[in-house]
Amino acid sequence: MKALKPYQKKIKEKYSDKDMQNRAISKLYQDAEQNPLGGCITSFAQIPIFLGLYRSVTRLAAEGRLNEPFLWIPSLEGPVSPENNYRGMQWLTEGWVNGAPSMGWEATLPFLIMPVILVLMQSFTMSVLQQPEDESATEEEKEQLKSTKTILKFLPLMIGFFSLQVPAGLTIYWFTSNLFTVSQSLIIRGYYAANPPKIELPDYWDALDKGDQMTADEKREAAMAGLSTGPSFGELLEEAKFHYIVKREPLRAGSEAWIRVESSGRRIIPDEMKAWVEAAPAPAPEAASMEAQNETTPVA
Fold it and tell me: Would the pTM of this model clear 0.70, i.e. be above it?
């Protein structure tokens, strides 16, 4: 997808119409045999796994099979308890005695460390996976991207809040999944940085920015692919303005043509026409002498 960015920039520069841009970009993906939504498949595939794991961890905790410690965590089924069906934050918000939670600080702090680490890890993962800003994007697209980034800033906090309400085993899974995702992304980016992908596209894509310099065969192939290679309607309209404007010298009150108009009794001259002719500037001396010479020169 990153290798196709220069072609997308060409498309946005050449076509001002949004519909034409979308059709051209769609054709670009088709010719490159790429799917911009292909990376979402693995993300959606994790949802049923996570839901199934959540149900499994909860039921194992209810059966007392996850009461083993892990690293500094006293129990994988904690800090939630069977009283609240192994979800919720009652273990932290209720039953405080003398400024300490119901479990005591010694037992509570180990369970608070993992959510903090998870929030930091999720923030780092998002910063690594975040795509760089597209310089060819329009101002509207940049504003949308900025709004999306603002919303995503709160996602790590939401995940950390969620991890406080489930068994610790699920929090460990989420942390391990993030660690694997960011490691995989760094490895893949490093590989493609050392081995840039080679994408074979039809010749008309490389000639798309040449305009009138495209050969007849390239224009024919582009037209068959649905890509317009001729001038846009706006360019034709702009060019037409210079062809339909005909410069004419204004009529003057003393000219022969105006005398013929006035001497003809069959024509009714509007007052606006008279005012326009009378306001016309007098001819320059050189032009006046040229007209007089033309009038006195006998015709053979």
Answer: no
